[in-house]
Amino acid sequence: CKCSPLYPFIPTILWSKANKGTVWRKERNGLQYWGYSWFQRVRCPNSRFEKGDFSLQINNVREGDGGVVVKVVTSVINYCKVTPWPHGATVRWTLNNSPFVPQAGIAANRGTTENVVREKATARLTGNWTCVVDYKGKEGRASAALAVKGVIHPSKDDTKVYAAVGSAVTLPCVFSPSLIPSNPVWEKLKPGFLFKPAPGRLPTSFSSSFSQHPSDQSASLKEVGLEDEGRYRCSGSIAGQRLTRNMQLVVAKSNSIPSKDTGSATLTCQLTDTSEVTDYEWVHVVYDLNGTRSVGSLQKGKSVSISRVSKENQGEWACRFYGRDGILGNITYHIQLMSGLSGQTSLGVSHNTAAMVGLSFLLLVLLLILAQMYKNHRRRKRIFQYPALETIVHTVSNEREERERKQVKN
Question: How far apart, in whole angstroms, are the C-alpha atoms of residue 165 and residue 167?
Answer without folding.
Answer: 6
